[in-house]
Amino acid sequence: MQDDDDQKMQIMRKAFQMFDTTKSGFIETLKISTILNTMGQLFDDAELQNLIDETDPEASGKVNFDGFCRIAAHFLEEEDSEAMQEELKEAFRLYDREGNGYITTQTLREILAALDDKLGPEDLDGIIAEIDTDGSGTVDFDEFMEMMTGE
Length: 151
Prior knowledge:
This protein is mainly alpha-helical. The chain has helices at 2-19, 30-38, 45-55, 65-76, 81-95, 105-115, 121-131, 141-149; strands at 26-28, 62-64, 102-104, 138-140. It is built from eight helices and four strands, in the order αβααβααβααβα. Strands 1-2 form a two-stranded antiparallel sheet. It has a two-stranded antiparallel ribbon with strand order 3-4. The model has no long low-confidence stretch (mean pLDDT 83).
């Protein structure tokens, strides 16, 4: 059980860091739904809003990592790693239109830019460089999985 929790923590930390582009230790509450979507997580908007309101009572529009974890964990509870892998595979398949088993870093760039419009070219370059470790210009499912799950 502990491994599973560690895994969730890593996934959440990675997601949080990806969206905390200024490294302020906070992310905008508006981005939480995007992060949950990125993680392939289903959620109810009203439920999410209630959790955000509880976590951010001053309505500052920002939460720290702990706050984000409280919110995200609420939706991650039911998920197991197999289901998550299936959902990521599904997301990957949507972008791997030719069925080559990989997506180009350009496609990945578009995905990331669509998920967070505050990511500038430098942010995107940094994320891509981290993911495309072999410099192939393509990202296979394993690299994609690693990016999304932090494994």
